[in-house]
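Reference record
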Amino acid sequence: MIAFLYSLSNVALTILFCSVVALVFTAAPLLRARLFGDVSEAKAEIARTIMTAVTGFTGVVLAFSLVQAQGHLRDVEKNVEIEATQLRQLDRLLANYGGADVVPIRNLVRDYAWSIVSDEWPKLSEHSYSERTSELFRTLTESVLTLQPTSPRANAIYNDMVRTVDQLAESRQGRLGATDLGLPPIFWEVIGILMALLVVFAAFFERQRALSLGGLGVGLALLITLVFFFDQPFLGHAQATPEPIVKTLRVMHDRVS
């Protein structure tokens, strides 16, 4: 169900959420009136007062949730940028190291970077990883470690390469770990409870206010939609992309050319 919702376009998802929430808010007082009749003005006034307070709480929770979700997305994007920089740096160090024995390793760097984009990135939305990408990184690591520097300059470059490979391993683990990023379930549970409370109190409004309640529902639905857009960093149209790594591949290709 979640995957289906994220497969929808931003416009379609916004229309869906707004329509459903607006319909529920609009129908609440009409359904109450049909089943139980009209309520007194005093009860309606109490409902309006409480609903105003609960609406404020809901807005605060949604705003905080949106900040959290956007923060997670920015962290993922930053990690991808760092990983792309490390790949570019490793290729540059190998080029500076020189020698025929580094040519296959530079090819491995490019193959690994491309595998991240083509093999592994689609699996991140499934909270998984690519076996092929993992194997390429293992081979790349072993290939770098087999180099035997024969001069002080080569030894200094070699040490930088080993350090960069270690950093790449950390960046890879960070990216794979980020597939589990998202708002804690308690956030969505609180949002759900607050929305349910709003619907209950909306039911005590006069029938004449049904359309205004629908407008309130649309406003809250827009906030919920925004939070939903950013909640999963590897799902939907607001997800992180491998574009920094794609740019790095172009740089590495130009360096070879």
